[in-house]
Amino acid sequence: MTRLTPEMIKGVPDDRMDLDSKLVRMCGTTVKEMAIQAAGLSGDVDFSGFDVAVVPITSGLGVIGGFAKSVDAIVRRLGMSSHVTEGTDVQGFSEAIRDGADMIMMADDTMFIAYNVREGKQTNNSWGTAMGYSVCLKNAAGGDLSGKDVLVIGAGFVGTEAVQILKGMGADVSVTDIVYEKAERLESKYGVKALKDVEAAISSHRYILNAAPASFPGKIMAEGSVISTPGVPHSFDDEGIRKAKAIIHDPLEIGTAVMAVNSAAFTLKKNL
Ligand code: PYL
After folding, report:
1. Domain positions in the chain
2. pLDDT, averaged across the chain
3. Whole-prediction pTM value?
4. Which of 15, 112, 150, 194 has the smallest set of CB atoms within 10 Å of its CB?
């Protein structure tokens, strides 16, 4: 997992990235609508009954400036009430439980989870990111990926979740990784196709989920590519921007919104 920096997320609390209008333009949904779809809910769901506590975690490399505030702002935009706990770590967790939080969100250097306190169930960011970016890819591809060739770049945590999700959506999934053996492992485990030549794989696919922390040059991209790309850092050259039909990216919000809505869905689905 690539670690975010305060610089990467500085626009998130004030929504300076204007993600809703970008997603509506490329995928036809707002962030909230996409997250509702990703969590298997439907309609305009009211999340105001969920009280979220975001706990800053100091272990390992420590707190990322603006991270907890960004998560807090993202869940508020979904209509949940939210606050950042005063205490950190175990103290913050304890404070959240004491104050009756319905959901606790927290991240260390390897895991970022949304914990539904009422149901005792967790949703992690690898799944949330893979699911959110797969739904965005599907929507940007016209709402249906069945029978379409989709390439997943990167066979790490997010890529591993993405191959399963995209296969479940009916796509013909190929996976590539600079360490070919990692792609081969996913081939034998999930029945997807491992491709060795990363550049050739990119050139021959229009639908790509880039789960690797690397960018690639526009000259190898197919005309009209739809790239759903959670990896950070993120950049495309002028040729890539010109060739792409859509480049879907944000540093934190898509994965976090899906985590929070999926976490709430554990409770909401019980009451259906
Ligand atoms: C969750 C993000 C998505 C991309 N990279 C992941 C990352 O940066 N993880 C580290 C998160 C550490 C948060 C820190 C804090 O401020 O509470 N412990």
Report:
1. 6-127+252-270, 130-248
2. 96
3. 0.97
4. 15
- Distance from the alpha carbon of residue 110 to the mean position of ligand 1, in angstroms: 8
Mean pLDDT to the nearest integer, 62-69? 98
Top CATH class of 6-127+252-270 equals alpha beta
Is it true that 6-127+252-270 and 130-248 share their CATH fold? yes
User: Is 90 exceeded by the pLDDT of residue 17?
Assistant: no
Summarised one tens digit per residue, pLDDT across range 151-201 is 999 999 999 999 999 999 999 999 999 999 999 999 999 999 999 999 999
User: Long-range contacts for 224-233 (Cβ within 8 Å, ≥24 apart)?
Assistant: 226/137, 226/140, 226/141, 228/133, 228/134, 228/136, 228/137, 228/140, 229/133, 230/129, 230/132, 230/133, 230/158, 230/254, 230/255, 231/2, 231/154, 231/158, 232/2, 232/4, 232/8, 233/2, 233/8
Which residue CA neighbors atom 16 of ligand 1 most closely? Answer: 63
- Give me the CATH code for the 130-248 domain, please: 3.40.50.720
